[in-house]
Amino acid sequence: MGTARKHVVIDPATGKLDRCIFSEQAIYDEEMEKIFGRAWLMIGHESLVPGPDDFFHTYMGEDPVILTRDGEGRLHALLNMCRHRGNRVCRVDDGNAKRFMCTYHGWTYRNDGALEYVPGEAQAYYDALDKSSLGLLEARVETYAGIVFATWAKDAPSLEAYLGDARWYLDTVFNRRDGGMQALGPMKWLEPVNWKTLVDNCSDNYHVPTSHLSSARVQTRWLGRPPLSHEDQFASPNRHAFVNGHGLTFRDADDNLPRYVHGMSSETLRLFQEYHNTTMPEIERRLGALRARRVQLANHSIFPNGILGLRLALPRGPLRTEFWHFVLLDRDMPEEIKHAIRIGSQANNGAAGMFEQDDVDNWRQVSLASTSRFGRRHPQDLSMGLGHAGPHPDYPGLVSERYVSENNQRLFYRRWEEFMNAGNWADIPLDPITARFDGTATMRG
Ligand code: FES
Ligand SMILES: [Fe+2]
């Protein structure tokens, strides 16, 4: 008792990964403390709380949190737990409220977390209650291009340092326009998988031509999308990069094609191309020519549980994950394009998305394999591309030589070890920011 366990789960020389991390309750409990209790977590988007006194109910790991905007416009992430006995003080998904009243005994909190009113403060408590020490527990909050992050760790680095050079890539989707983005959603559903399985999948381009073959054929036939083959994936000049736990895959092409994944079809291509052409001068001013014209962020994850845009993989036990799927749109896009992206995003991903359904069963089996008494003695094999990644003259982070590689997966589990073995944030290494952020875009948008 009392001695912290040392986690060694990935062998960097062979890529062998211990399966026990996907199903053991004790490991899961430790993850909630050491990863979800420390990391900067994506919890929402500023557009979900646009005005004074707006709020949006979200989660940090398993902990229910109210994201509020107070009357002065400041954001707060407040643990949804009454400081008296622990009842939830907010029971709805979103809304507008200056105060939250606990429905057990009536303690009432302002939307900045302060405890404002206690029934019987004079009569029952003899004026001896220290209300100032009994506000709702508040996490640190910072934003990146409108995406709201929060952490419980007082000693965590700034969000800017936490994202580090990953932002160089993230900007190409999240920070393109002066007007910023808006989030629609979320759509929510439960999956019988361990949260890490699907986060590691965000850099897995190897599975795409196999798992998604039938969905891709449907898209080729009905939407005019290019066909998908193993040869294309293996020959692709696209890359993987890894920074501070964040896994990034990106397309490197100076082909002046619109930078969107969802909603583009032979019918809508003209609209997207026009939008791309008219906005390019603004995007080039914001991101510089290299990022605006050549780099397109593809599948990615933000450590620990932000995936593929504004989607959250919320842990709900070793073998259960709650998915939250938002659609992110440039706020100033024409309505027709917003509509096409909204429909396309849900057709691909989301509870009824074709690609999502292809993925879930694989993830479920991979997670369940770790409960097999015999199977779990044999590690996962993540050896693909070992020794074929390193620094790149144009691209920040640790960059793989090929688009298909398990470099990001190996590094994701190594990052997991770094968090799980650290006593506090001082023990967690961070790569320095070295990328050149050409253009006017900043952390603030
Ligand atoms: S639990 Fe909230 S007022 Fe008692
Ligand atoms: Fe997939």
Topology:
Layout: E1 16-17, H1 25-34, E2 41-45, E3 54-60, E4 63-69, E5 75-79, E6 94-96, E7 99-101, E8 108-110, E9 115-117, E10 138-144, E11 147-151, H2 159-163, H3 166-174, E12 181-191, H4 195-201, H5 208-211, H6 213-223, H7 230-235, E13 239-243, E14 246-252, H8 269-293, E15 295-302, E16 306-307, E17 311-315, E18 321-330, H9 335-348, H10 354-369, E19 380-381, E20 389-390, E21 398-400, H11 407-421
Antiparallel strand pairs: 1-19, 2-11, 3-4, 3-6, 4-5, 5-10, 7-8, 8-9, 10-11, 12-18, 13-14, 13-21, 14-15, 15-16, 16-17, 17-18, 20-21
What does this structure look like?
This protein has 445 residues and is an alpha+beta fold. It has 11 helices and 21 strands. The chain has helices at residues 25-34, 159-163, 166-174, 195-201, 208-211, 213-223, 230-235, 269-293, 335-348, 354-369, 407-421, and strands at 16-17, 41-45, 54-60, 63-69, 75-79, 94-96, 99-101, 108-110, 115-117, 138-144, 147-151, 181-191, 239-243, 246-252, 295-302, 306-307, 311-315, 321-330, 380-381, 389-390, 398-400. The strands form 4 sheets. It has a 9-stranded antiparallel β-sheet with strand order 12-18-17-16-15-14-13-21-20. Strands 2-11-10-5-4-3-6 form a 7-stranded antiparallel β-sheet, with no helix packed on it. Strands 7-8-9 form a 3-stranded antiparallel β-sheet, with no helix packed on it.
